[in-house]
């Protein structure tokens, strides 16, 4: 009778059933299910709505707020000019990451503008009583790495930060998304922001991932299929056995890049793996407090019968190691493939050709064998321990190619320590690589880690926009395995040859 | 952050018919190091606007004296990428008060609304008409009427209505921002906070 309905249409369908006098016990049951079945996203969002503004957005309460040096200074100036305090300083956490150097962090920061921003963050945090993990602090690192690894991020939370990759925290079943500086000021002043509720999209990937296919490949594949704007206006839930079987680090990589298809965020239902990851972390709830939360967290999944505005399904068997060839993250393909013809893509042909021209590529060229000048392993997308393990698995017993400059940047000091403890540092050093200190680094090149104009970088980061890694730099986004294969061969290479 | 009230804007427009204009193009990351909100307009579209030696690129639309105005007309998926509000600040500081596109990235659109820029989403067909009209006559004027929620090509009278929620519309017309609203419900927020489990 009813195959697929949107919950918004509940009333319409009910009226329709009355009109057709079809209300039987069965349809009452269906209606009941429809009216109460909620998605994971609905459950978390609805629990945070302080007020619904008439013909306007929801006033959404924010459980956790991360700030960094780049997008917070003007928000603090705003507080000062309004003469308003921070409402709940214990709900905001500050870390320095975007501007920080990745060598010699014990020395004063050479760039006066960067130093000024770092000082401003420290000053503002001290003034308002906000916890601050500055340069040199043992817990310092990229905001989206240190939040989860210290147990600040928890399932069922709302989490925001003036950084679009805040979507990373969705891996834990939180609603997490990036905000602008005006909104940073709102959260500091009132712990709320005003947001229209996004539409809902579910992306299901079932099956078994092939050899050498990493979480990064899964998300790059999805974006290549639906485009860099394919999920704009939506909040995504990732479902299916590929994500269920994925590690927390992998889930973070996937949720991290939700914004790269335009989605406000992406989330994955918390499970035993999620709780095992968080339990015992420094700032996670402990003992009885933890035990009380577990039954609530277990309710955080999409109910049977709940519906999405868009439901997409992909087959894991179709995903091979990916690489991008253009200037937005949707311009990606299998590493063994050719660059598509302009006529075969959704974007306008003029924009597509402009993009290839910037990259110095042509339609129908093979990606394998393309020259590589730089390799960047790191960022909030791929700067975690699993990423370094994957990279090391390829470079072990091999040597860095002479033509490649490699920047290996852990996401945090904790990751850096793990790299040392697990013997990965020895493998990297023997293969001719140097490990740098934590930070955002060449992902957005605000510090000295800039790729020169015209040079090619295989990068495990999240954006291949023009000039993203330095003015004129050309970025090829890929997984840590593809990056490692490029680092030892000096050209774009299928990493499966080394596995 | 107070901003100018927005009601009816009548202006020529600057066309930028490129898809996926991302916030790294609007304001490259290396210009995000300020701790105050000023001067961002100088670096709007920096790498498309200037050569490495800081000389203007003659073929870029902002350097072409033929085009000017307070309205920027962009291609599909305008403002994708980073959440940096600096992108909206740069557009505002340069002198634009309205950005028109057939499709905006979410965060960029929010940022515009929060600082007093009106993002107007038009149909792809109407976007094409605007580009064609500017192409035919760079002095052609557009009228963006926020109270009526319409955008009109004044030369031909062709018009389209656009969506904006009533709350944001009132804010722009009156120059209010969200913080004013949120501060007025502080007690309600504090009570809500007491109910949170973490």
Automatic annotation (TrEMBL), chain B:
Alphabetically ordered keywords of this record: Amino-acid biosynthesis, Branched-chain amino acid biosynthesis, Leucine biosynthesis, Lyase
EC number per UniProt: 4.2.1.33
Amino-acid biosynthesis found in the keyword field: yes
GO biological process: L-leucine biosynthetic process
Catalyzed reaction equations: (2R,3S)-3-isopropylmalate = (2S)-2-isopropylmalate
Domain of life of the organism encoding this protein: Bacteria
Single GO cellular component term: 3-isopropylmalate dehydratase complex
Domain Aconitase A/isopropylmalate dehydratase small subunit swivel: 5-124
EC class of the enzyme, as a word: lyase
Pathway as given in its UniProt record: Amino-acid biosynthesis; L-leucine biosynthesis; L-leucine from 3-methyl-2-oxobutanoate: step 2/4
Gene Ontology MF terms: 3-isopropylmalate dehydratase activity
Oligomer status and interactors: Heterodimer of LeuC and LeuD.
Family: Belongs to the LeuD family. LeuD type 1 subfamily.
Function in brief: Catalyzes the isomerization between 2-isopropylmalate and 3-isopropylmalate, via the formation of 2-isopropylmaleate.
Protein name: 3-isopropylmalate dehydratase small subunit
Source organism per UniProt: Spirosoma profusum
Encoding gene (name): leuD
């Amino acid at each position: 009778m009813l195959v697929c309905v949107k919950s918004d249409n509940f009333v319409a369908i009910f009226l329709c059933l009355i009109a057709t006098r079809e209300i039987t016990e069965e349809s009452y049951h269906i209606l009941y299910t429809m009216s109460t079945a909620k998605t994971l996203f609905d459950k978390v969002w609805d629990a945070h709505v302080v007020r619904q503004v008439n013909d306007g957005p929801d006033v959404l309460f924010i459980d956790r707020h991360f700030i960094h040096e780049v997008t917070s200074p003007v928000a603090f100036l705003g507080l000062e000019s309004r003469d308003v305090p921070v409402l709940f300083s214990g709900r905001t956490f500050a870390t320095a990451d975007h501007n920080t150097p990745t060598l010699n962090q014990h020395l004063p920061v050479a760039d006066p503008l960067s130093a000024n921003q770092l000082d401003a963050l420290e000053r503002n945090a001290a003034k308002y009583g906000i916890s601050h993990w500055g340069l040199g602090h043992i817990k310092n690192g990229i905001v989206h790495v240190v939040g989860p690894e210290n147990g600040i991020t928890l399932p069922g939370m709302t989490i925001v930060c003036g950084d679009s990759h805040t979507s990373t925290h969705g891996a834990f079943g939180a609603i997490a998304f990036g905000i602008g500086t005006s909104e940073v000021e709102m959260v500091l002043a009132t712990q709320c922001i005003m947001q229209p509720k996004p539409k809902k999209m579910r992306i299901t990937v079932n099956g078994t991932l092939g050899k050498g296919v990493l979480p990064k490949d899964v998300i790059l594949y999805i974006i290549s299929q639906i485009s860099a704007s394919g999920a704009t206006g939506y909040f995504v839930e990732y479902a299916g056995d590929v994500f269920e079987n994925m590690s927390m680090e992998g889930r973070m990589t996937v949720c991290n890049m939700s914004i790269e298809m335009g989605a406000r965020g992406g989330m994955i239902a918390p499970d035993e793996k999620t709780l095992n990851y968080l339990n015992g972390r420094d700032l996670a709830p402990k003992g009885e407090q933890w035990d009380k939360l577990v039954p609530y967290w277990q309710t955080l999944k999409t109910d049977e019968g709940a519906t999405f505005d868009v439901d997409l399904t992909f087959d894991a068997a179709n995903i091979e190691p990916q690489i991008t060839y253009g200037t937005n993250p949707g311009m990606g393909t299998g590493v063994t493939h050719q660059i598509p013809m302009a006529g075969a893509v959704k974007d306008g042909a003029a924009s597509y050709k402009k993009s290839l021209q910037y990259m110095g590529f042509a339609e129908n060229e093979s990606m394998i064998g393309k020259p590589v000048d730089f390799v960047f392993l790191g960022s909030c997308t791929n700067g975690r321990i699993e990423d370094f393990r994957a990279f090391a698995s390829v470079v072990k017993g091999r040597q860095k190619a002479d033509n490649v400059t490699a920047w290996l940047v852990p996401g945090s000091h904790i990751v850096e320590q793990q790299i040392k403890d697990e013997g990965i540092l020895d493998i990297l050093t023997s293969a001719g690589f140097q490990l740098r200190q934590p930070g955002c680094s060449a992902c957005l090149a605000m510090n000295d880690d800039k790729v020169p104009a015209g040079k090619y970088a295989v990068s495990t980061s999240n954006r291949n926009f023009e000039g993203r890694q330095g003015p004129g730099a050309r970025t090829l986004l890929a997984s840590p395995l593809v990056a490692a294969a490029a680092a030892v061969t000096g050209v774009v290479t299928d990493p499966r040859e080394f596995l | 952050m107070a901003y100018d009230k927005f009601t009816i804007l009548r202006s020529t427009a600057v066309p930028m018919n490129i898809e996926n204009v991302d916030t790294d193009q609007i304001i490259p990351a290396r210009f995000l190091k300020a701790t105050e909100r000023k001067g961002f307009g100088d670096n709007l579209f920096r790498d498309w606007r200037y050569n490495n030696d800081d000389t203007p690129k003659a073929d870029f639309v902002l350097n072409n004296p033929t085009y000017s105005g307070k309205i920027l007309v962009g291609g599909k998926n305008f403002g994708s990428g980073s959440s940096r509000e600096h992108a909206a600040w740069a557009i505002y500081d340069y002198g634009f008060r309205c950005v028109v596109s057939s499709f905006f990235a979410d965060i960029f659109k929010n940022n515009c609304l929060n600082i007093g820029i009106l993002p107007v989403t038009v149909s792809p067909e109407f976007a094409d008409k605007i580009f064609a009209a500017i192409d035919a006559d760079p002095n052609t004027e557009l009228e963006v009427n926020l109270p009526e929620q319409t955008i009109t090509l004044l030369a031909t009278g062709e018009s389209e209505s656009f969506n904006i929620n009533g709350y944001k519309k009132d804010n722009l017309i009156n120059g209010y921002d969200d913080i004013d609203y949120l501060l007025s419900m502080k007690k309600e927020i504090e009570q809500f906070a007491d109910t949170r489990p973490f």
